[in-house]
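We treat protein structure as text, and this decision shapes the records that our systems exchange. This encoding replaces a full spatial description with a residue-level series of whole-number codes. Below, we set out a record of this kind in full and without editing:
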Amino acid sequence: MCIVHTVSDAPPSTATDRAPLTVVALCFGGMSASLTQTLVIPLQGDLPRLLGTSVSNAGWVVTVTLLAAAVAMPVSGRLGDILGKQRVLVASAAILAVGSVVCALSTSLAPMLVGRALQGVAMGFIPVGIALMREVTPPRLTGTAIAAMSATLGVGGAIGLPLSAWVAQSFDWHAVFWMAAIMAALTSLGVLFVVPHVHDAHPGRIDFLGGVGLGVGLVGVLVGVSKAHDWGWGSGRTVGAIVGGVAVLLVWGSYQLRRDEPLVDLRTSARRPVLLTNVAAVAIGFGMMAQAIVVPQLLQLPRSTGFGMGQTMLEAGLWMAPGGLMMLLFAPVSSRLLTNVGPKLTLMVGGSVLGVGYLVAFFLMNAAWELAVASIIASAGVGIGYAAMPTMILGAVPMAEAGAAVGINSLMRSVGTTVASAVMTTVLAGSVTAAGLPTRGAYEACFLIGAVAAFVGVAITALVPHVHVRPAATERAVEAAAA
């Protein structure tokens, strides 16, 4: 089976002349949005005291951002298709700025949760920005631009750890959020004055009820998975949240299939290339988050354990930072692979490199530099894979559905990261020393699980049909004839 995809025509000359600056502006915005996911991790142990709340309640400061991002990404993608992507990017950047300011002014839990939820909503910037890249860059730059924008999902998270740790140690903890607000304001200015406003809106209605249904279902499932360790996998709350969320999603899916203009076109999503790419995204997302959780913990374990590195949070973040930057540095490599061997083989290469990174960590976990090398290898694999996935999705869906389709793919990565967080936490808690710390075997098991997830992603990708290319002008002619 062969699937035909499109490549956009060259954008207008004015947009082409400033395409590199446009790419920089969009990538900076993507990095600013993704940075918020790890922004509070250095503060997490102090949040109960800082916000005057319990440890379990303080955990929602992290969780609420992940949940809001999961819902926002497909919804923002659809809004970008209907209203125009540049408008949605401006709105996302503004929401990020407002959410960051709310967090910076917060001294209690409730306003902090509101601000963190708004920061999560702003994650919709990334899939919309990826979809827009195809429209505002010349063909010679499109592959590299999409690869760089996709990499910001990992880069922002990686540099967020050492950056926020340094800011929190050097200044008042609120400065972390003021920093995020400044970055969001710069993003807003960049999108307004640098990113061209192309006429890419497609007439349609916004399915508000579909958005509510998707949000309720996703929140139910992801809350159940993310809180399973605290509540217990067999507890009524965990089972109820997951089963209830799945039931809502089934009803939502039936409703979407009956809609003329659904929030998510499930028929398109069910096409074999799109479906398998999204399933692979879960595995690759799992692989990315597993190392982001396990390696920093291992670096910070006390040396008295016999295998811990005794690093501070800032030191651990600095050891992890090169891996995040590697994702960005591999954007040109990913682009060349996409051009020479195609997105399918590129994704398989990325998943394989990610798996090798975990195997290196399994055998080399005796020094901080060894873990840094393993993290660099794994991050390079994530960078390659994250660049290939949106290219595969964009090649298998009509232009009018590009934003929504990339949003769903980003959602599936988010599902993978959420599941990874729950699984890694459960594995580490299941084998502990007399001091209550995870054993060396628990960390080795996590690395093996990460490797298996990566290689499963490779196997799934191998089943994706081959993709041929045709120009966007041909697609528009076909759509006009069909109309």
